[in-house]
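Before surveying the methods themselves, let us examine one representative protein, written as a sequence plus integers encoding its fold.
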Amino acid sequence: METTLLAPAPALAFATPLAPDTLRLIDAYWRAANYLSVGQMYLYDNPLLREPLTLAHIKPLLLGHWGTTPGQNFIYTHLNRVISRYDLDMIYVCGPGHGGPAVVAGTYLEGTYSEVYPHISQDEAGLRKLFRQFSFPGGISSHAGPQTPGSIHEGGELGYSLSHAFGAVFDNPELIVACVIGDGEAETGPLATAWHGNKFLNPISDGAVLPILHLNGYKISNPTVLARITHEELDQLLRGYGWTPYYVEGHEPELMHQAMALALDEAVENILAIQHNAQSQTEPTRPRWPLIVLRSPKGWTGPKEVDGQPNEGSFRAHQVPLAVSADTPPAHLAQLEAWLRSYRPEELFDEAGRLLPELAELAPLGARRMGANPHANGGLLLQPLHLPDFADYAVAVPAPGTVEASDTGTVGKFLRDIVQRNSAPRNFRIFGPDETLSNKLGSVFEVTNRQWDADTAAHDEFLAPAGSVVEMLSEHQCEGWLEGYLLTGRHGLFNSYEAFIHIVDSMFNQHAKWLKSTAEIPWRRNIASLNYLLTSTVWRQDHNGFTHQDPGFMDHVVNKKASIVRVYLPPDANCLLSVMDHCLRSRHYVNVIVAAKHPAPQWLSMDAAIKHCTQGIGIWPWASSDAGQEPDAIMACCGDVPTLETLAAVSILREHLPELKIRVVNVVDLLRLQRSIDHPHGLSDADYDALFTRDKPVIFAFHGYPWLVHRLTYNRPNNTHLHVRGYKEEGTITTAFDMTVLNELDRFHLVMDVLDRVPQLGNRGAHLKQLLKDKLVEHKQYIYRHGQDMPEIQDWKWVG
């Protein structure tokens, strides 16, 4: 494999930017990082090989991933040089899975690791602990996880590194994110789309992303696509994405060091020139940002062969390249010792086990170290949002159900003023997949634009090089950008159609795990919550049909730790305002808000909404008829449409069976249904029983899948009397009300449920039940004839 560098300045291709002494030191630093990485994978004791290696010095279970590690050590070492040379504010995103040994080694050598974990000291005893903890019970994982200083990206699940990198640099004009992308990771859909982030980056108000595509040729046992296409095809691909690629290819360390130093100098100077030129122009054009392609052998500097099979440069170097135990050939132990000694640790560490001073001086100082950069511990930089008083945006509700409004349209005005108040400097962004207008949040465009740095046409709307709204028709990118934005100390909101938020199920998983883990790490600081606003919901997707009807994200979310997740279903606009204000003020949670966008009846005044949302669950006395008495039945509701249908059902019961004592309970905070010992928001058994009783029938109209309510309440005393109606995976192109009928959530079915479950009624409800069945037949005939719901459905109003 030849060493070549393709750069915009071909005359520099044979330059040697590193003086001989600098080259010697950089190569030694790289060897030290490689030695620490191999030591993490193998060594239980004898960390500096002060005695011959024996099996007693080897971990009983060898775990880790060597293949990507030496290349990342090479990158980290060279990034240290350019940080110091150009005084850069830079963080490191480790995209390849299981690249943890390299980032741990890099942060240990620069001193950050020992500052964060004083027991992992900069001496032989500290090295022993550093090695032992890796992939060891009670220790650290093989990823660059939350425990690793300088990390904002774990990399256990591939595909999100470049999205996180772009999110991190939005509104961070001084920051550069060096994002290492594995060639296996580059095959994922999210990463393949993430290259387009350069069309959304403003060179004046944002920082820069420096992608480093690490082509080492293999995944676990297969070659990678980008490593097996021609240079011309790869170059056309990257240039087609809008990047200027620089190529560093080879395996000979001396030549590779010179080539990498030259490429990084060119790339950094290119970035600085782009930013300077943009700031001096009134209308800067979209630049072609630099990108580095590093092609190096997988498992570089490791064993060339193991048991007669090629190792370095093959898929066999992906994980632990050399098995060493009592059950393996004795030659393996000798080969491991030779491998470790090839890095010449005696030339790297002094008698006490400290990195030699001349090598330690290569690392940047203070917060310029990538492991110590505060942007990688965003809570250190987090500033509170400047929030207006949400009550100022209230819908006037003189009496329940007397006015209609769009819930998200109302909260859009609140968000508009949040955007305006937090625009200088910008500290808040709204992300979404081309749905901000569709989701009725268009008021924000009164004060901002969509950030867009590609070409524009005369008829485009709300597009500008800088703006607080970022939209791309990729839920993966929106999620990744928002996560990167939050992780580096800012605030944001993700709005999406309810059914399609499932696209980021796995990304949500990873972020929730990150929050859970970092909450347990003392030196990590809490960040702003990840806030989802889900609308265009299952009950109002009658025009789009079955494909757009799925409320199951809530089921997925509640699987995560109770200390992290919150789920809210405000029944009207004033409740949504209260919930949104609460979520935007919160820290270190994932908040899911499910709300309506179409005009709908409004139930609570702002004062009543604040009280109701503060409690999260409660009796609506104005809708109930059991004041001071035992109820005959409880009608509970959670969500906007279930609330509407419940109140319509109550009105039917009031008309036909006025003697029934009905209690109406509305749920805003879904997790109030859990027991207090299971979730911080959960009700005690006494409080739950006070609302739902221990023995009365409960008819529960729920926005989502019915079994979620059963799951949350399975251990409540009154569970056997709980009957839940919700979405039953029935949907089509039909009317809004017919969607509820298809799933038996409509007012008529809810009334029949009460008739079936109140024992003292006996046969007195038979005539009413027949009337309701006739109404259901009449409904079907009407919609098939007229294409809309019956007037008594469309024009229904609550009468108190």
About this structure: DSSP finds 24 helices and 22 strands in the chain. The two ends are 82 Å apart (CA to CA).
